[in-house]
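[Automated response] Your request has been received and processed.

Submitted sequence:
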Amino acid sequence: MSMIRQQDLIDSVADALQFISYYHPIDFIQAVHKAYTMEQNPAAKDAMAQILVNSRLCALGHRPICQDTGIVTVFIEIGMDVRWQAELSVEAMINAGVRRAYTHPDNKLRASILSDPAGLRRNTGDNTPAVIHTRVVPGNTVDVRIAAKGGGSENKAKLAMLNPSDSILDWVVNTLPTMGAGWCPPGMLGIGIGGTAEKAMVLAKESLMDAIDIHELRERGPTNRCEELRLEIMDGVNALGIGAQGLGGLTTVLDVKIKDYPTHAASLPVAMIPNCAATRHAHFTLSGEGPALQSAPDIDQWPDLSWEPGNAARRVDLDTVTAEDVRHWTPGETILLSGTMYTGRDAAHKRMTQMLQSGEPLPVDLTGKFIYYVGPVDPVGDEVVGPAGPTTATRMDKFTDYILEQTGLIGMIGKAERGPIAIEAIKRRGAVYLMAVGGAAYLVSKAIIAAKVVAFEDLGMEAIYAFTVKNMPVSVAVDSRGDSVHISGPALWKRKIEEQAIELI
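Generated structure:
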């Protein structure tokens, strides 16, 4: 029988969440580096270089890998012989650990959790509560697997109730292109098969806690249908040519994880949840001997890469750029931005739209300006702002035409692709959409030399900031004619893979 102290669980949860905010799992880094060395598309290779450089910077600086520091998901197995020395419930202890981790003064993490989700959507302020899955099992230990899941990948989750005769492989390969690139590939796919609808989703989520080992599986060969399916899905998905950040390329997924459970004879529930380029999870076990703290990995396990934009990059002054200037920019072109831009996400766009429709003036003049879709982490120490990587741009699509028309905005910066409504609006208004690399938030923030909240302060990280930037790296994702690199890039590389039988990871 083990006696588990309340403080030991709290301390262990807090430590694990701080740890995974700035350390990728080493297996993930190794897998991305392997994909980087094999990648033939320069744009995708550049994106992976930024991801790897960002990861090393975060490991050295102990700051978040991504500005979206995630919703906390916990799988906890409590041994039947465990005794607790605690006043709080298990859920309350875990949430106390979450609260402490996210308010750590030396590495403050972004609070992203909103209560009353269908109503007022109030930020809880400390990223609680976590989503907790509890099992009581034989034994005398407490086993915890903990992850921080960002909204960009979590929002791409899919569930299908297939017929028993349907092909799971076909469903995955056909579904993945519909998910866009907002989940920040390259990453992992978690697949849950069987049980009931909710069980399949939990299985998919849980599978993502496993280590990347697809290469070992390929070398030894599969021993059951799930392992066969892992290899089939891996090859089928990578053959789509989606590539890093959806730019087209050889690697879209680094591994495919599958967990299954018996199901009803008439059913075949299948769930799919991606893990993004900010894959973050940890594992610890309590046995009554104090807290279980994470061990820092050897920094030499990260590839010592550097990232430079290259001489061909176009340098743009945001304070003088005109609508005529942006008409000369081409899809895939690297741009280095300097000057002043404004930030604004869903909540800011909604409020701006409401103000304009009611005849109120906006608190900022967006004429001839660029807006950056970001919700930054609060700064610590001498930072002007915390990690400030882009958010999924398609969430702003429904606002785009109206905002472009009413404000004179000429450019937007975000993550991944734009949908058809936004592309048509960009073409109609002669604007441009630029893409920053998702999963490189700390690297991107190094280009921000000043930051100030200028409107909607009550929205927290969704407030409008004025950022002064110097040589912030982006690429043209949709040009003023409506040509999208997220459409042309994957189509090109899918064709190349098919025609040339290019080796995939």
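Summary generated for your ticket: Residues 74 and 295 are 19 Å apart (CA to CA). Residues 2-287 form one domain.
If you did not submit this request, please reply to this message.
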